[in-house]
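Tokens in:
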């Protein structure tokens, strides 16, 4: 009895090692591929996809068709959501490829749909059928699944021009950019300017006539300048200077050149005008009209 136990113990160790080396693998079940026509509203093609057994007939995708793949991903025999599950579409001649990821739920049920607008132009213009492979993988030691599922034949509309391939983006030196700034404001037409000049010239005799009617007394001119010569001189000089600023703004100055001069002259006009009006008030209180 003791000798039989010594023989059984090595056999148990060997069998446990064999079981541990048999790693689990990813796969799928209940996989179907179908082609739906949007115009007809019905499916024109539907086949089941078996594990490691590609379809014998190619799947044709027309311009108005939608290819739909349904499956249930599994880890060994248990339905489970993997980290990655997508269909890889590849041109065997140019080796260009693109992938479309499945939308997989927690129970392993996944779905992917694609049409002409989802496929790159380089693959749409391929001369032969494309290879479509299913890939299911995740983290860990579980063996991923990667196998050819079917051939995808792209059917283009003969009445439409072939899809144009976009020029790939290349980073490098670009042409020099020349900025065109907006031109400055121009003076109004001469006829409009002359109309306003004549209006100002005509208003001067009207102003003098209004002063005469209202009883303006020019005899106080000498008395006003003798009492407060500086305020009156600065006041009238600032008015003339302000007109000069407006003239320079009209002819050559810009707004940033005009504003400092206008503010400075306006301050002088305010201070000197206040003192001049104070002198006029004193003459009014003295009974001089």
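Residues out:
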């Amino acid at each position: 009895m003791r000798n039989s136990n010594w023989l059984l113990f090595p056999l148990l160790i060997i069998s446990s090692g064999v079981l541990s080396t048999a790693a689990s693998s990813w796969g799928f079940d209940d996989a179907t591929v179908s082609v739906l026509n949007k115009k007809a509203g019905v499916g024109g093609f539907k086949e089941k996809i078996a594990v490691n057994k590609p379809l014998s007939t190619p799947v044709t995708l027309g311009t108005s068709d939608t290819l739909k793949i349904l499956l249930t991903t599994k880890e060994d025999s248990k339905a489970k959501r993997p980290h990655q599950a997508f269909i890889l579409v590849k041109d065997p001649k140019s080796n260009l490829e693109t992938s479309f990821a499945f939308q997989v739920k927690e129970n392993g049920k996944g779905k992917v749909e694609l049409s002409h607008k989802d496929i790159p132009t380089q693959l749409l213009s391929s001369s032969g059928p494309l290879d479509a492979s299913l890939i299911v993988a995740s983290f860990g030691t579980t063996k991923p699944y990667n196998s050819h599922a079917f051939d995808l034949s792209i059917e283009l509309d003969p009445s439409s021009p072939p899809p144009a391939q976009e020029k790939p983006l290349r980073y490098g030196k670009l042409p020099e950019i020349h900025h065109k700034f907006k031109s400055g404001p121009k003076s109004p037409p001469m006829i409009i300017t002359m109309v306003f000049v004549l209006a100002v010239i005509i208003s001067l005799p009207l102003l003098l006539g209004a002063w005469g009617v209202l009883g303006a007394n020019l005899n106080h001119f000498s008395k006003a300048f003798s009492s407060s010569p500086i305020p009156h001189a600065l006041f009238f000089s600032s008015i003339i200077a302000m007109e000069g600023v407006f003239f320079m703004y009209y002819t050559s100055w810009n707004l940033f050149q005009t504003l400092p001069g206008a503010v400075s002259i306006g301050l002088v006009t305010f201070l000197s005008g206040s003192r001049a009006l104070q002198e006029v008030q004193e003459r009014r209180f003295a009974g001089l009209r």
